[in-house]
Amino acid sequence: MSEVEELRPVPRERAILESFFTQLGMFSFDRAKDYVEKEKDSSSRSGGAVWASLGALGHLAAAEKAYHNMTFLGQKMGSASYLEDLLSHLSEQLCHFTQARMDLSELYEKLHALSGQKSVNSEELLSSMQAVSSKYCSKFHHPILSRVEECFQTELDVVLQLLRCQAQISEWSFLPALLSLHGANSKLLAWGQLFQRQKETRKHMFGGQSQKAVQPPHLYLWLQRFQVLLLAKFSFYFHEALSRQTAAGDMKALTARTVPDFSGKICSFIRKHDASNVSLFPAVVSLPTGERPLTHWPNVIMMMSDRAAELNTLDKVVHFYDDKVTSTYFLTRPEPHFTLW
Predict the structure, then answer these.
(1) Which domains does the chain have, with CATH numbers?
(2) What pLDDT score was predicted for residue 202?
């Protein structure tokens, strides 16, 4: 665009589109919808392609609100020529945007369906998300859509980091998992600030009004809970590595802030049931003392081999009593590569 074109007054039609997509990118879905409907009513007699498209933009705002609230999980599911060129260009990019939302909805439905399964292929999920990211990279790059593109890319980055972190924890890769967890947390904090800056005005029945922060949509809250769970899992799987970096009392206080506090729950279980040890095998965590119960490993390995089919069943606990060492063993498998005993 030339310098002369930059200095020209912005046509009203373009200003309306810019205002609409700015509000949409700031998650003000109702405000964006009300705005275009108001403009449509006040300009209904003007005619033209732009005014005819305002109704479709209202539907887009409603669809974006439904998407971010994840309601689909419950269901199976200038001059005239310049403005025409702009609208045509936007329509093409919005088609890509709509298809991207459909692809992400399918992926979220898949994640939702996998929530009750023990064996989850994290690498496959990560690959699917990376394919979506590559497919739609820069597909809706028009300046009017900059806010929409920004929030879409932030969502992709958060999900990619979380899925990558999940796969890395399952591979017991400390530093890569830590970096992914930190990256996801930083993106979520930046995303959350958008909601804190938004204010919703409410009028009271007997006069006066008040403002409060806009509540984040369900999608954001769900990703936030996912990150919190991964932090708890990371703190448990790498408990010994993290314990070497701080005092025992500080470590206990830090893990107590995770949700759920796996280490705290296991230590309480040990005290309540007079258990001698709880370990995650391969030997990555041993509570309460951190010492490896080496004399018991042959029995544990034998049970893992002989009763693998049972252990691979969701929520299955197998047990075995060895009179030679007068000990009873209980084993369960929280995920394919690790056994809790």
Answers:
(1) 3-203+211-233 (1.10.3450.30), 261-340 (3.30.450.240)
(2) 60
